[in-house]
Amino acid sequence: MKIPYTNIAAQHVRIKNEILSAVGNVLDHGKFILGNEVEEFECRFADLCKVSYAIGVNSGTDALILALRSLGIGPGDEVITVPNSFVASTSCVALVGARPVFVDVRDDYNIDPSMIEQAITSRTRAILPVHLTGRPANMTSIMEIAKAHDLDVIEDCAQAVCAEYERERVGSFGTIGCFSLHPLKTLNACGDGGVLTTNDPRLYERLRKLRNVGLHNRDECHFWGYNSRLDTMQSAILLIKLHYVEEWTEIRRAYADYYRRRLNGLPQVQVPNEKSNERCVYHTYVIQADRRDELKDYLGEHGIDTKIHYPIPIHLQQAAKYLEYTEGQFPVTERLASKILSLPIYPELRIDELEYIATTVCSFYDTEEE
Q1: Which residues, in sequence order, are CB contacts of 246 under 8 Å at separation 6+?
Q2: CA 198, CA 176: separation in Å to the nearest integer?
Q3: Strand 124-127 vs strand 78-81: parallel, antiparallel, or unpaired?
Q4: Which residues of the chain does CATH 3.90.1150.10 include?
Q5: Which pLDDT tens digit goes with each residue over 198-254?
Q6: Residue of 156, 226, 230 lying closest to 191 (CA atoms)
Q7: Model pTM greater than 0.85?
Q8: Mode of pairing for the β-strands spanning 340-343 and 78-81
Q9: Architecture of the domain made up of 245-369
Q10: Could you tell me which CATH class the domain 8-242 is placed in?
Q11: Which end of the chain lies in a sparser environment, N or C, as judged by fewer CB atoms within 10 Å?
């Protein structure tokens, strides 16, 4: 059996005709930039996240950069974040001229709130938690710390559309939420895309202008901005997929529960166990495995593709060398990087494929004991 880690093409078999019809409508009206579909998608995405406003942009990375810019964060400022995410979570801070300051994570892959305050200095402007794997960070503690120190909170929700903490959607807690609509995400465009969310009307107006080269209208520019607009074509496609995102999320959650039940008894494997106050969406299903690299090779030999998210922590990347962090400074992050393995989890997986993956993981460790 051959099981790819992702199968984007399979997602579109069921909804291809709906997507083609939506694309055809855009071709017919010809409003390719900031057409009506963009505003409709923004309104519906805001409703999905239970926030007042959403602003479509051209990538999740740009969403983070525009969020920082809208808050006036730049040279001389510091932003607290984590070293175990995709590099864009950190690069956006550096790209606006600010300094990323790392704190370690907990075993749930999210920022450890108990370590945030010791990282705060007079230059700290914001906390940037990442809801990694689609599991919400402890936003109650993070928001309490931010309020006590008068800091903004920028939520990196790239992997977490529809995730919830204390029954509230991610992207609704902080000053601004930042989402990715990359093809691999749980709500995905057929290309790049991103969204910002906020409940602040002033930030909403500023972000709308920032993503559209600072224009107040066609003829008036209020400040220098960016060309970072979500395409009308992608918005039309996303409007179709919004009909299915909750259904797809529930399938991911059911598959995660199956993995948990099958693998939880293995002493060599630690599976994610969500808490009662969390709703995880499992953009990735990440286990912590003994002899991780050997398990990955074994699964590959049996036709199962897996990934590691992410094998090299950001503080050990060449790009971050100027920050002068060293190996050993973030022990949880570094330990996890040596053990984590992402198993396939997407709604188009067949049940027999899911069973085969779980059985093959178990057989690796059964063979080990013989």
Answers
A1: 162
A2: 5
A3: parallel
A4: 245-369
A5: 999 999 999 999 999 999 999 999 999 999 999 999 999 999 999 999 999 999 999
A6: 230
A7: yes
A8: unpaired
A9: Alpha-Beta Complex (3.90)
A10: alpha beta
A11: C
